[in-house]
Amino acid sequence: MNIPQLKEKIIPAFERAHGAGYQALFLIDNSQGHSTYAEDALLVSRMNIKPGGKQAHMHDGWFMQEGWRISQEMRYPADHAEYPNQPKGIKAVLTERGLYQARLRGKCEKKVQSRCCSMLQQAHNGITARLSRTKVSRAGNN
After folding, report:
1. Residues ≥6 apart with Cβ < 8 Å to 24
2. Quick one: three-class SS letters along 32-87?
3. Cα–Cα–Cα angle for 123, 129, 130, nearest 5°?
4. Fewest CB atoms within 10 Å of the CB: 7, 35, 43, 69?
5. What's the 3-state SS for 3-31?
6. For residue range 108-126, what is the model confidence (pLDDT) as tens digits?
7. How far apart are the first and last CA of the chain?
8. CA dist., res. 51 & res. 93, Å (int)
9. Facing residues of 105 across strands?
10. Which of 33 and 82 is assigned the larger pLDDT?
11. In a 10 Å sphere around its CB, with 0-12 CB exposed, 13-18 middle and 19+ buried, how is residue 117 labelled?
12. What pTM did the predictor assign?
């Protein structure tokens, strides 16, 4: 449930049923929706730092670079010498996107909360920043 749904449907239905002079307290639990993702969804939390191993086989993604949409395969090709048909790790994905930095760790120590030091956080920040700068238009609306 989201705010527009609450404002446009639930509150008006309550007011029609009980009158405008009444107040209501709505308790909404959206927790079931937070873990509902496709098996191949692009979730950094399901990736390893290195390729292969036990991690999700994600569908291909894309990112914008200098105004161009760049497709990004999330698995190595079948003829790859070391990791044929294996999922790429976070390090490979960040490297392909120009976001990898050697100083990044897999996870931050608890005491290092003030600066971004994890590859997971860097992946999230970099992808979010690039998406926020990306102008997306619907087909037919140029």
Report:
1. 11, 14, 18
2. HHHCCCCCCCCCHHHCCCCCCCCCCCCCCEEEEECCEEEEECCECCCCCCCCCCCE
3. 90
4. 35
5. HHHHHHHHHHHHHHHHCCCCCCCCCCCCH
6. 666 555 455 555 565 655 5
7. 32
8. 10
9. 118
10. 82
11. middle
12. 0.53
Q: State both tokens at 89.
A: 């790790």
CA 45 to chain centre: 9
CB atoms under 10 Å from CB of 109, counted, come to 9
For residue 98, the number of C-alpha atoms closer than 13 Å in the C-beta half-sphere is 7
Are the C-beta atoms of 72 and 60 separated by less than 8 Å?
yes
